[in-house]
Design goal:
230 residues, alpha/beta, Rossmann fold, five-stranded parallel beta sheet, three-stranded antiparallel beta sheet, 8 strands, 15% strand, globular, binds 2'-deoxycytidine-5'-monophosphate
Length: 230
């Protein structure tokens, strides 16, 4: 590949449970690049706010301002003040709090700025797949490579159900997960700031019927053909 093409930003947006995280990670690996999971940043602010009992948007934004974010080049995980917060970011309470805090402009402003700075720094040397909800619309609107990965809600609920079952979680049903997915989609889509929306110039990929490896290959081929066409 030509030297000037070594680093670039790929934006990958879409609702939760569409296979976005898996696709982003595999795509980053197959490009020999890095993944930047922006949802993990919202989750980190949510987790630490819950742990400190912070209840006001101004306190959440202040907390976000005090945190440093980086990507661990080896594992691809987001480091918060140099620490990997791991599974603590993945609980249902944190998911719900992350969705709540992400409604506020003050919080988004801080995190959007951090995401841009980090993405720009990393993309000087590596292809960086930036995964989130507003990456192609707000954070990196000028990226040449934009994707919107989605799947039908029922398919997303079935997948989540299987994941939770495999983890041994009891007392769940596809119907209750589907209700929660619809609620969260609605909350993420109707919020006033940076709502979940497909960028006009994004390639839309529906993973409902396409196996993940095929999706990744499709995205990779798309990127490579565009790189070669310059
Ligand atoms: O992708 P995720 O489920 O880890 O994201 C957690 C929450 O953060 C989700 O409710 C949407 C929000 N989020 C956002 O508003 N903007 C982003 N760029 C990434 C995530």
């Amino acid at each position: 590949m030509k030297r000037k093409n070594r680093g670039f930003v790929v934006t990958l947006d879409g609702p939760s449970g569409a296979g976005k995280s898996t696709v982003s990670k595999l795509l980053a690996d197959s490009l020999g690049g890095l993944l930047m999971d922006t949802g993990a940043m919202y989750r980190a602010v949510a987790l630490l706010s819950l742990e400190s009992g912070l209840e006001r948007p101004s306190a959440w934004a202040n907390l976000a301002r005090r945190l440093s974010f980086d990507v661990d080049v080896k594992s691809g995980v987001i480091l918060v003040n140099d620490a990997n917060l791991g599974d603590r970011l993945r609980g249902e309470q944190v998911s719900s709090m992350a969705s709540r805090i992400s409604q506020f402009t003050s919080v988004r402003k801080v995190l959007t700025g951090r995401q841009r700075t980090l993405g720009n720094r990393l993309s000087k040397r590596h292809p960086v797949v930036v995964e989130g909800r507003d990456i192609g619309t707000v954070v990196f609107p000028n990226s040449r490579f934009k994707f919107f990965v989605t799947a039908q809600p029922k398919v997303r609920a079935d997948r989540r159900y299987r994941q939770l079952k495999a983890k041994g979680v009891k007392g769940i049903s596809v119907a209750s997960i589907l209700r929660e997915i619809n609620r969260r989609d609605r909350q993420d889509s109707i919020r006033k700031v940076a709502p979940l929306r497909c960028p006009e110039d994004a390639v839309i990929v529906d993973t409902s019927k396409m196996p993940i490896p095929q999706v990744v290959l499709f995205l990779k081929n798309h990127i490579e053909s565009k790189l070669l066409s310059v």
